Each structure stands twice: as structure tokens, then as C-alpha cells.
Amino acid sequence: MINILGKIMNLGEIVKVALIYYLIYLITLIIHELGHAIVAKLNGMNFKIFIGNKNKKVLLDTKYIRIYRTFLPSGFCQYYSKGDKSYDILSLFNKSLLILGGVLFNFVIVLILLLVINFLKMSNQYALVSDALLNANIAFIILNLIPCKFDGRYSDGLRLINYYRNRKVS
Ligand SMILES: [Zn+2]
After folding, report:
1. Cβ neighbours of 77 (radius 10 Å)
2. Is residue 118 classed exposed, middle or buried when 0-12, 13-18 and 19+ CB atoms within 10 A define those classes?
3. Cα 118 to averaged position of ligand 1 atoms, centre (Å)
4. Residue ranges near ligand 1 (ion) with Cβ within 5 Å
5. pLDDT tier, 135 (very low <50, low <70, confident <90, very high otherwise)
6. Distance 106 CA to ligand 1 centre (A)
7. Is residue 157 very low, low, confident or very high in pLDDT (cuts 50, 70, 90)?
8. CA–centroid distance, residue 38 to ligand 1 (Å)
9. pTM for this one?
């Protein structure tokens, strides 16, 4: 038995909670990258989502997603022109939306979860998952907006700042 933040948990429960949080991290990462992908699609662009470290072995490679074998992966959504729909002709607002698509989708999930948590009476088991998913999405919004370099990639906050400084997105 180990006492964590006033809760007594045995080893089995700790492993279970760690596993749930790990899966929730991966799900939240996918939600975030899907947000970028949806905005890209709405703008008539093509996209490809990359999950994990590009120096690692490729686990899955399809038209829309490539997954590298990485234990704690970060993500990246690449957009590219489709036919005559060039990235360059997108408006300033739409280019900003592309950068913010990930956190916007995380925000939509936060709103949905708040509604679900408030209106549904959930058992402890489901409440643990929904609370963790809520917190993970809030954390993703905050962390992605902090202007920094992470895992060799620019955060969305830094990309937005660079974009308005140089009018180009790296
Ligand atoms: Zn992002």
C-alpha cells in the first residue's frame, strides 16, 4: 500500500492509473493532431500526421499518418498543397487557424467533457478517465501555446509568434 495525495493505492492500482494516463496522453495527442488535420482539410489542403521521433523505426506508414516506435511520442501535422489549392494563397486568418487547429480541437473536447461530466452521473471508474482526459486536454492547450522548442519541433505558440514576426511558418 502506498499513500499518494491522500489516496491509498496498492501496486496494481498504481499500474492501472499509470496505464490509463499513458493511454490518455496518446489519445490527447491524436486529438490535437486531428485538430490540425481537420482545419487543413477544411481549407482544401492535404495533410499527414507524424507521431513519434523520426529517428526511430517506422511502425505504421499510411497516406495520412506515420507512427514511429517512440515510448513517449510528440506529434506533428504537415500540410501541403492539393491540386491548385496552394498553402501560399491562404489568408492570414486561415494560416493562423491551421497553427491553432490542434489547441482548438483540444478546447472543443474540453467543452464536451465538461458537459458530459456535469450531466452524467458517472461511476468512479469512468470519472477517473473523464477527469484525466479533461486535465490532459487542458494541459495540452497550455503547453502547446507556450512558445518553446520541444523534441526538436516548434510549439504552436512559437510557430504563431514566428509567423506574425516573419509572415512565414516553419
Ligand atoms: Zn499543434
Report:
1. 23
2. exposed
3. 28
4. 102, 156
5. very high
6. 10
7. very high
8. 12
9. 0.87
